[in-house]
Amino acid sequence: MSTLQEKIAVMQAYADGKNIEMCPVGGTLWREVPHPEWDWSIWEYRVAPVKHVGWINIYKGHSHYGAGTVFPNEQKARDHSAGNAVSTILITWEE
Questions:
Q1: Is the pTM above the cut of 0.70?
Q2: Range of the domain at 21
């Protein structure tokens, strides 16, 4: 975090209720911190990435069918496939 505006954005996100992570300056191991001390000389801070979980269906010979459809839970994915899916897979990603 190098600019004043970037620091303000992280602090504003904290004030707005977002989760914040920190790591030593130059480090790579981020950890969530519930009450940041805002010591920018030894710590870097960022808004914690939002973690998402979803389910997708895989169909034999129809890789395009249902492409991009992510369901909030396994049952909804299975219901949508009507038994035609070869498998239903849990996926996770961060933003």
A1: no
A2: 4-47
